[in-house]
């Protein structure tokens, strides 16, 4: 079988080296009830999940050289038990260390306008005004 041409969303060898131990340990801790090992490599499954996430293509429309939708059931399992968060943290820490930063951010900057907007607060009005008073005053004005 020939090697497939990699997609831009595929894991690099360095990324795979970081997460392979996590996924191998996860697979060892979650053996198949039937003892079936699976037909697809974990790296191929992760590449299929990343391809779908990056392109937004429907699962049924994954390219034929990636594992099919049925093989990507790991996505839901990893999401539910937090394995995806562990992988995300590993990759983020690795990237931050490459850029000569601490693994965890030491400072977060928030401005109050962003916090208000994110929390869904209504915009501020001048003290003592309300929409009714403003409309009534505007209608009465000649």
How does this structure look, described?
The chain is mainly alpha-helical and 142 residues long. The chain is built from six helices and no strands. The chain has helices at 13-29, 42-55, 74-81, 83-98, 112-119, 131-140. It is extended. The model has no long low-confidence stretch (mean pLDDT 80).
Features:
142 residues; mainly alpha; 0% strand; extended; 6 helices
Radius of gyration: 25 Å
Order of helices and strands: HHHHHH
Taking the sheet with the most strands, its summary is: none
Poorly predicted runs = none
Structural class assignment: mainly alpha
Strand content: under 5%
Find the count of extended strands (DSSP E, 2+ residues): 0
Shape type: extended
Put simply, the count of helices is 6
N→C terminal distance: 84 Å
Mean of residue pLDDT values: 80
Considering DSSP H and I runs of 4 or more, what fraction of the residues is helical? 40-55%
Structure at a glance:
This protein is an all-alpha fold and 142 residues long. The protein contains six helices and no strands. 8% of the residues are buried.
